[in-house]
Write a structure and sequence with these properties.
single chain; alpha+beta; five-stranded mixed beta sheet; 4 helices; 9 strands; globular
């Protein structure tokens, strides 16, 4: 009987501990972390999935007019997305900061291209569209088992793309950057 009670208490505690991950609306990052919201505000190309990476790790996938919440360490980071093209985004994140990256769907040859555009509250129209979506829906969460499986499946692809970024694309293409001052002010997240 004690075992069932303990199991029930642990299950309820785990649910409440993880509920902010699945909650709609802006959720602050954990202590000492930063959070990035990857947001697709357009329904155009809704059937096309884009895959997201943080450095050498696959972190998730989603399609359509949705968003993904990603929490990571502050400081210098390399984020990227994959479709027919590869789009990179450098970042210098501050602890406690909340950032928004608009995911653009761009006409491609065989499949839609992905674009990553960090925004601030000064990008008022895009910010309001992103905020409305985040306040209305829960984030898309890629199951941890799928993340592990795809990191294993892409163990050759990821280093190849990072090598191409360093040796071919980094200095030839104008990739965007998230600076610490691009964090969304807390009063705008309500």
């Amino acid at each position: 009987m004690k075992t069932k009670s303990l199991l029930f208490i642990l299950t309820v505690a785990a649910f409440f501990a993880s509920s902010s991950l699945f909650a709609q609306g802006f959720q602050p990052p954990a202590e000492g972390k930063a959070v990035i919201y990857f947001v697709r505000v357009s329904g155009w190309g809704g059937a096309v999935s884009f895959e997201y990476f943080h450095g050498d790790k696959y972190i998730g996938v989603f399609k359509g007019k949705n968003y993904m919440r990603y929490e990571c360490d502050p400081g210098e980071q390399l984020l990227w997305a994959s479709s027919e093209n590869k789009e990179f985004l450098t970042a210098d994140l501050k602890a406690g900061g909340t950032y928004i990256v608009i995911v653009d769907v761009i006409m491609g040859g065989w499949k839609a291209h992905v674009g990553l555009k960090p925004i601030t509250v000064n990008d008022r129209e895009l910010f309001e569209r992103a905020k409305k979506l985040i306040m209305k829906k829960k984030p898309v969460v890629t199951p941890e088992e799928k993340i592990k499986k795809l990191n294993k499946k892409l163990e050759d692809f990821i280093p190849e793309m990072l090598s191409r970024y360093e040796n071919e694309w980094k200095d030839k293409r104008n990739f965007r950057h998230i600076s610490p001052d691009m964090a969304i002010p807390p009063d705008e997240l309500k």
